[in-house]
Amino acid sequence: MSGTTVRVFVNERGVSVAVGATALDAVRALSSDDADAIAAGRRRLTDSRGLPVDAGESLVNGAIYRVVAVRAAAADAADAVEAEA
């Protein structure tokens, strides 16, 4: 491991990116489609526990990220209102 790269995991695949790169940069190194979807809000990034992660956060060696689907909040709210009725 060089002092100029950081090794992280995205969807269980290892990737090395430059020191100072963001989580979104790591995703982009593997899949520009996933990175574009995150930037557009169609997908989101979580940590290894499934907690949301800011795609602009700086990377640390060994971090684990997952790209997941975004559930539409409006649709969820509408479903909740219908269930109460």
Characterise this structure.
The chain has three helices and four strands; from the N terminus they run E-E-H-H-E-E-H. Helix 1 (23-30) crosses helix 2 (32-40). It starts with a strand and ends with a helix. It is of the alpha+beta class. The protein has a single domain, classed as Beta-grasp domain (Ubiquitin-like (UB roll), Roll). Strands 2-1-4-3 form a four-stranded mixed beta sheet, with helices on one face. The model has no long low-confidence stretch (mean pLDDT 88). The protein has helices spanning 23-30, 32-40, 73-84; strands at 5-10, 13-18, 43-47, 64-69.
Percent strand: 25-35%
Number of domains: 1
- Tell me the span between the first and last alpha carbons: 58 Å
Strand and helix order? EEHHEEH
How many strands in all? 4
CATH topology: Ubiquitin-like (UB roll)
CA gyration radius, whole angstroms: 16 Å
CATH class: Alpha Beta
Query: Largest beta sheet, briefly?
Result: 4 strands, mixed
Strand arrangement, largest sheet?
2-1-4-3
Please tell me the overall pLDDT. Answer: 88
What portion of residues is helical?
Answer: 25-40%
Structural class designation: alpha+beta
Uncertain stretches: none
Backbone shape: elongated
Q: Count the DSSP helices.
A: 3
Looking at CATH, the homologous superfamily is: Beta-grasp domain
Instruction: Provide the CATH architecture.
Output: Roll
